[in-house]
Amino acid sequence: MKRSEFRYLDRLRVRWAEVDMQKIVFNGHYLMYFDTAVAGYWRAMAMPYHETMHQLSGDIFVRKATLEYLGSARYDDVCDVGIRCQRIGTSSLLFIAAVFRGETVLVHGELVYVFADPASQTSRPVPASLRRAMLGFEAREPMVEVSLGSWQTLGDRAQPIRTAVFVDEQHIPADLEYDAADATALHALATNRFGLPVGTGRLVNVAPGVSKIGRMAVRQDVRGGGVGRALLEALVDAAAQRGDREVMLHAQASAVTFYRLAGFEPRGPSFEEAGIEHQEMTKAVHSL
Q1: What H or E segment, with its residue span, contains residue 175?
Q2: Distance CA 217, CA 219 (A)
Q3: What's the rounded Cα separation, in Å, for the pair 230 and 233?
Q4: Which end of the chain has the least Cβ crowding within 10 Å, N or C?
């Protein structure tokens, strides 16, 4: 079993509370590691779990879990937990799970879930949309589609995401979050395999050949799954296609590393905007 066999890997650092009197991870904690990684698997699919299951009129219940112990993780080890959907039956889902320390497999196992009615917990066929999404994920297909358009065409689906992230979560006043630039900006909306909007952003022309990316917002329950990167790439490509030579943005301090990895570089000192520390960042683009 190799790390490369898993599209999704969830990184963890072993905590003191997880080590037993033998100074190794207590055997039962590996099930917790697997369960936590499965939750990350749904995020990597850009799939808000509870909302999606409600939409599918079902839920997923554990039927069986098996573990095989080959080695032991110790306090402060950095491990990666791989999760892979091995098989989808009529109503069952078989996942393979493994804990790696570097390239070494420490523990591996199987998790069998059943798609079922949430009230009676009686099995139901796995919905076709869920089956397609999971098979697509394992085939390393993109999990989101990014649409570009005006506020008039995308605003009704983008606005709830922006409100949830900026107004409700970050406590930015609504009169600062919404401005006149929305009317003329090019907006991006990311939707997942189930048609649910999961992220948004916009591109505003600020000078000849220069555009500003802003209002980047991703639903909290799917962050870390590549939604932000897909939005950013779509907006940078749009700037290149219209002939811009540079894109810039005001990154919140917590997101500077994310933008650096996408090729943006800081310019000037940090500053405060809407009560949050920001850093101006830029990236040269080439016309397509």
Answers
A1: helix 174-177
A2: 7
A3: 5
A4: C
Write the pLDDT tens digit of every residue in 221-266: 999 889 999 999 999 999 999 999 999 999 999 999 999 999 999 9
pTM score, whole prediction: 0.90
Tokens in use for 264? Answer: 């943006």
| Calpha distance 76→15 (Å, rounded) | 6
For the chain, which domains are there? Answer: 3-138 (3.10.129.10), 144-284 (3.40.630.30)
Amino acid at 238: A
Q: Is 124 helix (H, G, I), strand (E, B) or coil?
A: coil
Output the CA torsion 209→213→214→218 (10° steps).
Answer: 160
Q: 187 pairs with which residues across the strands?
A: 149, 202
pLDDT band at 178 (very low <50, low <70, confident <90, very high): confident
Which of the four pLDDT bands, split at 50, 70 and 90, describes residue 288? low
Torsion of CA 280, 281, 287, 288, to 10 degrees: -120
Q: Which residue has the tokens 């749904």?
A: 42
Which residues are CB-neighbours of 148 under 8 A, at least 6 positions away? 186, 187, 188, 234, 238
Nearest to 38 by CA among 117, 94, 91: 94
Q: Helix or strand or coil: residue 86?
A: strand
